[in-house]
Amino acid sequence: MTKRTKTKKKFFKTYIKERNQVGAFAPSSRYLVKKMCDKIDFDKADIIVELGPGTGVFTKEILKRAKSTAKIFVFELNEDFYKYLLEKYPDPRLVLLHESADQIEERLNEYGFKNADAILSSLPLAIIPSKVKEKILDATHKTLSKDGVFVQYQYSLNAKKMIEKRFGKLQISFVPLNLPPAFIYCGNR
């Protein structure tokens, strides 16, 4: 069994087990990963935050593109995915946190940082309770640096108004080569 097949199997098993935390039945496609990561200027990004990495398809690409001095904070609430990521990515640039994404500000401050240069989110906003979703988006906006970029994907445009409320006019793109096809929201502070 290939690594990719194992990753897909792990993802699907976790999706079946934890439908209240996992919003898709398969990891994101390489097309979605590339298009989202292309929105980040990795040459300038010293502090990168990833929200909801799942099995780490974005994490892998972020680690590949990030400079050697970058610090990458990854928030994963699901315990199975968290343990999987701990084992899979022992990179010293990575700070893997097993907690909710609304803790961004506190955790960055704990490590001596105030803002993130880029925040990439795979959080399934459609299944997150409204109050928690609001807290996460508020914390994300507050933590993003003035020149930073926020990149989020979703399977519909339902979260557009909620995200625009914080990040203003968004650049929206569509990736049909993903299961299911996805919209990418890109905004700045």
Account of the protein in words:
The chain is α/β, with parallel strands linked by helices and 189 residues long. The protein has a single domain (28-188), classed as Vaccinia Virus protein VP39 (Rossmann fold, 3-Layer(aba) Sandwich). The protein is built from 7 helices and 7 strands; from the N terminus they run H-H-E-H-E-H-E-H-E-H-E-H-E-E. Strands 3-2-1-4-5-7-6 form a 7-stranded mixed sheet, with helices on both faces. Helix 2 crosses helix 3 and helix 6 (130-143) runs parallel beside helix 7 (160-167). The radius of gyration is 15 Å and the shape is globular. The termini are far apart. Residues 8-19 have low confidence and may be disordered.
List strands and helices in order, with pairings.
Elements: H1 3-17, H2 30-37, E1 47-51, H3 57-65, E2 71-75, H4 79-88, E3 94-97, H5 104-110, E4 116-121, H6 130-143, E5 144-154, H7 160-167, E6 171-175, E7 182-188
Helix pairs in contact: 2-3, 6-7
Number of strands: 7
**Alpha plus pi helix count:** 7
Mean pLDDT: 90
Tell me, briefly, the overall form: globular
Instruction: Compute the separation of the termini in Å.
Output: 43 Å
Radius of gyration: 15 Å
- Topology-level CATH name: Rossmann fold
Q: What is the H level of CATH, i.e. the homologous superfamily?
A: Vaccinia Virus protein VP39
Level-1 CATH class name? Alpha Beta
Named CATH architecture: 3-Layer(aba) Sandwich
Q: Specify the structural class.
A: alpha/beta
**How many domains would you count in the coordinates?**
1
Which bin fits the share of residues in helices? Answer: 25-40%
Main sheet characteristics: 7 strands, mixed
Oligomer: single chain
Q: What is the string of helix and strand elements?
A: HHEHEHEHEHEHEE
Q: Beta-sheet strand percentage? A: 15-25%
Strand order of the largest sheet: 3-2-1-4-5-7-6
Regions with little confidence, pLDDT below 50 for 5+ residues: 8-19
